[in-house]
């Protein structure tokens, strides 16, 4: 009997909806709460892509909000987008990592749910470990529970069985200390239909996710990968980015093709209000049905990054939006979104 396997679609394939969450906790966001809400609202409006006639051309918005005040502010900010505001309990908004990864199985969707341990125990917040099952239930999709730690931002797939990831994250002892590289590869194949992993090394400096790949390299088409090249002599990720480019150029996909590597300038050295380097990344874009939303950090390379990403997605519009307040919470646009593929 042929075993029915799961298949994780590429992000550029059609979506039925996008799941995200509304910044809801003042004790976490402090003075950045309302600015972060404004940046999430701008993302949602770009993804919904409402035309001049009030019709949403992009994709349906499913927004989790925690508490009456957050629900009210989300409804007010997203009026006219068709967004569904869903009351929910969660620790924070990073649904790329806490929500399920939707997969196709025999022509239907399943929600692959994994253990979430707060990025190796760094940020363990009440409610986050329950988000995957909750979203699966709200989506009306069967939940399939995988009893090992995996975050959606730690992998990026081409839809044909090839996956990008980093050793820094997936082999980190703070995730699955009892699993070997071979074990993890076998589980990814079983859970998500991944046949080949391309293992990169380290991610960005000061990234609390321990090197999530969606901050450093993304598939933009089968056989084509986008990554960042260093910007300026003071780029804090200069060595890591050069290594990533070299590793990708030496890699092949599941079909034996050498990867085509497209580079864009990194944001360079970006600091927070305290003068600390933050993991600002042009790669943390979200690929929607009609729109690619690119995070901007006020860098001199912002325009060049938008132009390069726009060229890579000629059938979509590319929208650059400020993400400087959002990243104070630890991530950007890709980190807060999880697409639900069309069946």
Report on the structure:
With 343 residues, the chain is α/β, with parallel strands linked by helices. It has one domain (15-341): L-arginine/glycine Amidinotransferase, Chain A. Helix content is 25%, strand content 24%. The chain has ten helices and 16 strands. The chain has helices at residues 26-29, 33-48, 68-77, 95-98, 118-121, 131-139, 167-170, 181-192, 238-249, 302-312; strands spanning 15-21, 60-65, 84-87, 101-105, 108-115, 143-149, 156-157, 162-166, 196-200, 217-221, 224-229, 260-265, 286-287, 291-296, 317-322, 338-341. The protein has a four-stranded mixed β-sheet with strand order 3-2-1-16. Strands 4-5-6 form a three-stranded mixed β-sheet, with helices on one face.
Relative strand content: 15-25%
Architecture in CATH? 5-stranded Propeller
Rg measurement, Å = 19 Å
Strand order within the widest sheet?
3-2-1-16
Secondary-structure map:
Elements: E1 15-21, H1 26-29, H2 33-48, E2 60-65, H3 68-77, E3 84-87, H4 95-98, E4 101-105, E5 108-115, H5 118-121, H6 131-139, E6 143-149, E7 156-157, E8 162-166, H7 167-170, H8 181-192, E9 196-200, E10 217-221, E11 224-229, H9 238-249, E12 260-265, E13 286-287, E14 291-296, H10 302-312, E15 317-322, E16 338-341
Parallel strand pairs: 1-2, 2-3, 5-6, 8-9, 11-12, 14-15
Antiparallel strand pairs: 1-16, 4-5, 7-8, 10-11, 13-14
